[in-house]
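Complex 613.
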Amino acid sequence: MNKQTKFSIWYIILAFWAIMLIQNVITQAYKVQHLPYSDFLAALDSGRIVELAITQNRIQGKMKTPEGGDKLQEFTTVRVDPELSDKLEKHNIKFTGVIESTFFRDLLSWIVPILLFMGVWYYFFRRMGAQQGFLSLGKNKAKVYMMEDLNVSFNDVAGLDEAKEELMEVVEFLKYPDKFTRIGGRLPRGVLLVGPPGTGKTMLSKATAGESGVPFFSLSGSEFVEMFVGLGAARVRDLFQQAKAKAPCIIFIDELDALGRARGGVGIGGHDEREQTLNQLLVEMDGFDPTQGVILMAATNRPEILDPALLRPGRFDRHILVDKPDKKGREEILRVHIRDVKLAPDVNLANIAAMTPGFAGADLANLVNEAALLAVRRNKETVSNEEFQEAVERVIAGLEKKNRLINEQERRIVAYHEVGHALVGLSLPGADPVQKITIIPRGISALGYTLNVPTEERYLMTRQELLSRIAMALGGRAAEDIVMGDVSTGAHNDLAKATDIARGMVKEYGMDEGLGRVYLESERRAQFLNVPGLAQERQYSEQTAREIDEAVRKIMEDQYTLAKAVLRERRAVLDEGAQMLLEKEKIEGRELEEIMKGHGYTPAPRGLDHLTA
Ligand code: ADP
Ligand code: ZN
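Predicted structure with adenosine-5'-diphosphate bound:
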């Protein structure tokens, strides 16, 4: 329970208690005495009764108090004596049969304290600032940075050249919307920045606004999701309204995953609030006309958990990878951050960059700051290499605690693993082209990765291509096996991928000689109905199942052997590539090809080319 909720509960308890108290005081003032009938008769006899109203079984009225004086006491009593009117006449008392209504008085006794409380509440929340509370519940917490105080430009963001280039288009659009509408080009609407924390996603968005000179609305996804259902949705509506009024502008949502997690998940009671907020966001995104000049930007480090609806065309359909910097990038970021720091001549930024693999931009900013603080503490005029060395150690210690760095030995394994994938891919016909190889740690699952993008959308794949893909997926493990004589757990995902392809070949595509050209795939459909306890129906015998497993295993074994053979033969390329990768942390597929050519190997043909080649 957060602070605000706790506060509200106490507030309600207090308010309730106080209302009861005030209500009590008011009714006390108008106290009606309950009189025994005999006392009433006595009062009647002594002539103290002034006024009466009588119904079937109750008597209300006013009487003088026994002590005398002008003050009249109200009373009620239960009527017992049916012959009352005779007695009344005897004493000459004015009486009616109507009851004076107490409704108004009762109402008053509730309304006054409630009004009083609303007043006090209002007063306090006004004083606490209009940010939170009763009257501003649906209003927004979005910080609006206007262009004046947003003096961030692309020059302040080091590295990330590809991201900046893509964002230039957004800048162009915000600056010259007419140009875009005239040509009728597709206008950007939602841009999703994907990358680990501290890599400069927020900074990039601010710089985009700064470059275009437009207002910048910034809000965190977690701020949308509040205690009351429906509040987040109101916030979203309000935010878009504000933004439209200030268009052209940029809305930036940090931590989009906090609010954009896939709907319909488990959880008791559901997550109504988040779902409503997300739905409202989708509605607003669909509703606004891009020519209005409102650009939505968002950041996340977990794109995989986002609701698919958010990523559909017309929403966040443009994705920009904001990765951790490589060595060169780190040097550039350091250069940006030392602008206001006096450096001693012995500081070498390239060296510091080499010492800090796995650091994100924020870690580097932190590093410079630490070094400067150390220098101040030592009464130095400038920051020297010594301080930087020490700061590096401190920051590394902090990051290691958070488990965000990998050590030297792991780096070596990862480098060989990744070059293994790439080299097998480049050596076998029909595998996907290799674009980039990196050992920069990203996220939790993959330590490094080899980016292989299919050249074009493919509908057909030959048996050869599928086999090459399996070999490529197993290439990482094969390289570890050859070089280290042992394999790591890093290959987990690779095995799953390779096995998937092999199973498909056997069961779906009838590509296995032994089992023949038979379609055996029926499990996949059954998986939709995968209720625990409900056995999956299989349309083939136990014997066939065993044969399938056998065939899959054989394909995997063969391809693994092949991958190992390739890597053994081209060991020199593997070593050189891994060395280069360790040094630069990120290399292009092209660069590995160059190394291959240097050793006298030609890269194998890609895609369907191998059929004609
Ligand atoms: P994210 O939004 O990705 O978590 P931020 O944009 O908040 O990261 O970055 C935090 C800080 O790290 C920035 O204020 C900046 O000082 C520093 N930083 C991160 N990336 C860079 C970069 N590429 N160039 C310069 N500084 C950076
Ligand atoms: Zn791998």
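The chain is about 50% helix and 10% strand.
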